[in-house]
Here is the input.
Amino acid sequence: MGSIVARATQKHIESFVWEQMNHPPYSPDLAPSDFQLFLHLKRFLSGQRSEGDEE
Here is the structure.
């Protein structure tokens, strides 16, 4: 059923006459801000410990 839904979705998207940009999935070029954010978060949380799920 997944491929049927994917085909139907692709046809629906094509009906909008949008320019499609082909790119590989999970490309680092798509969201470079994520890398800066997660690097900052990693540094911020480095060395900190959690006592449990409540924190």
Notes: The mean pLDDT is 77. Residues 7-45 form one domain. The CA atoms of residues 14 and 20 lie 9 Å apart.
